[in-house]
Write a structure and sequence with these properties.
about 850 residues, globular, 9-stranded mixed β-sheet
Length: about 850
Amino acid sequence: MSGIHPTHYRITLEPDLERFQFSGTAEITLETEFSVDEIALNAIDLTVTTCGVRRAAAIVPCLLSLDLKKEALKIRLPEAICGQFVLVITYQGQINDSMAGFYRSSFVQEGRRQFVAVTQFQESDARRAFPCVDHPARKATFDIEIIVNAGLFAVSNAAVKTLQALGDGRQRFVFETTPKMSTYLVFWGVGDFKRFQKAGEKRVSVLTLPGMAPYAGFGLDFGCDALEFCEKYFGIAYPFSKLDLIAIPDFAFGAMENWGAITFRENLLLRYPGITSKSGEGRICEIIAHEIVHQWFGNLVTPSDWKYLWLNESFATYFGYGIVDHYHPDWGIWDQFLYGQTAVAMSRDALIENFPIEIPGGEHVVINASTAPIIYSKGGSILRQIHGYIGEHHFQDGLQQYLKMHAYACAASDDLWQALETASKLPVTRIMKSWIEQPGFPLLEAHREGRMLIIAQHRFTYLPNDSDQTWIVPVTIAALSSSGKSTHLNMVLDQPRQTFDLPEDTAVYKINAGQTGCYRVRYQDPSNLKALGTAIRNKTFSPEDRWGLHADFSALLTRGDASLEAYLEFLRHFEDEDAFLPLVSIADTLFHFWLVLEDRRRHMSDAAIPRLESILDQIGYAPHPDEAYTRAMLRDQVLWQAALIGSPAATDFGRRQFARLKAGDAVSPDILKSVMQIGALTDGQQAFEWLEKRYRESGSEQERVNVLVALGGFSEKAVIAKALDYVIHQVPARNQFIPIVSMSTNPTAIPLLWDWYTANITKIETFHPLLHERLITAIVPSAGIYRPDEIRAYFINYLSHSEKAKDAIKLALEKLEINLQTRKAARAWELHG
């Protein structure tokens, strides 16, 4: 009801952590633009006991009805009202175990299981904890009070205003009034939380469960740094008097940006010495930065509709990496961005079953396995593209204008474009609309005629498409002369086919210089391709550009435009490669084709093993304390890939390290995961028993995650079957996807996954939707290779009576078709090449 606006909520809660119930009172101040006698609030899973309009000291009752389908609480007012009035609602609810709404989580202390209760409201689950107008544009201020048993701690968005002992074994926490904010950002939690702060910065705290104090310092220090960066860069002071970073045992997402009270999975906030790897440290910092950026992008300025969710997530993704790079420039964080965000985005965005970044639909844009790579990874990559186009100074000025103009209010995409365009005097709106409002990205096909460079664009997808889409593409070109002189060209491609002038003495050109653009390139000049190969071998181009050339070739190979033999020949140019980005991309491509091309697996092993062993020989099998973060990441990945493919050297090294681990010796955290995986691969049943014991006894969520990844590494079907049974019966729901994702890249385990999924579908459907989707997108593309018709038929029937995981199912089935196409294309090249 657009004419009714909540302006203030006063919420009083009494949670019971023994019966997992809560009672509440919500006093909602509403304003109407015209006379109304009926209103509708959002509510679900709540039992409303009373409802009335406050009249002086009295409360006049209202009539109620609940529309379960619309999740609406319809309220008939005692009389028609215009202007401001206060609605008072008392209600009850369950503290659920679904990791949504107001839910419970548990931990074990001194052999006894204890519980905490916290909220997770994004995108539309605040209605599960209190009646409200549950839409991001309906901002209001909040006063929250929580009554709990003595000895428990309560936390909310704002700082504690008063703490009162009630004399009956209970205490009342009263929190300060919040600024105007959306309902999805409201937070409260109760339990035995412990608070830790850093000397000199009293605003930032880490809240953990008992015994976790030794692991809080790393995240606390970086949280203080990230808050300082954001205040300076965005030019607006953080509006709360405190910022809590809260470690939660059970959490479906990685973290959540509740204003003033950010929640995290434990392993994404806490650093465990001897267990957390260099890549794990980098991930902790990136996640903390991501969520703190949200305090401005999303919390201070909120999307006016859920279709603009990218305004939150794309900026948090992009700046999450930028803040880490600011404080740790030696970590190679932008290389990690290209590998972990841009490459992921382009792989997802190359599917026909797709969405634009600005996802239409508005009312519900769910963050799931299908949409997240578009909203987060592609959106962040497009921001990197426009940042490079307009420059740092204009970019920062535009963002500050945007934030100041819309502070404590809502905004749409056009508001951001206008701010950036005003700051830069460049056609930002025109360019960005073509990237934000349509799905996919272009393939630029280039050939040269003398000085003329002719570029045609059409949509790139792995499967055939009939799209006539075009984009406005900021094209960057590096042109090298025969004498080695480099010229950098900036152009705009806005037609299906355009001609550009190259410098007269251009000997070789490389499109997408610096890899700031989100597009693929196909070179149609044999002479330029040959010259590019020489430039790769001589390292004339940057590591980013060498990675880009490989990534484009790999993408063309995946969709059948190049033969495997041509790709392997192309790799000869990288024989002396020593940079993280090209090497990790090569390792991934070889491993993927080894996995998918089952009938050519021996041939792929012969090609891949020398290449992967060469990488390990170059960087060393054993970690070095002072080595680059990217080198540590590369080793941990390649060590496992090489062992699984059949490298004797990698397998022997991992087996020896696993023996040391079982004997109680320390193993570097930078190879701990891969060593456990190789231990599972080589030691079978004995490894399973050791891993199960380690998981059960570990007090570290990071170590538990490492163990779960290793459970995907067994090479004996009987042990894999035992591990699958263990996963469904012993592993908490929040983590059951981890070993299954790991198994989906293990050729011995893959054929068993589909039967496991269908046998346990009733239980799997009770998981948080995001976790169910992760299982589908892991299992279907790999297991489907062996039983494609059966799996297609299963999901056709499934979707005929259920909407659950619809987007993830469609995504997974298309990835399956791509894998089947890859196998078919490889056979065709072999027969006719």
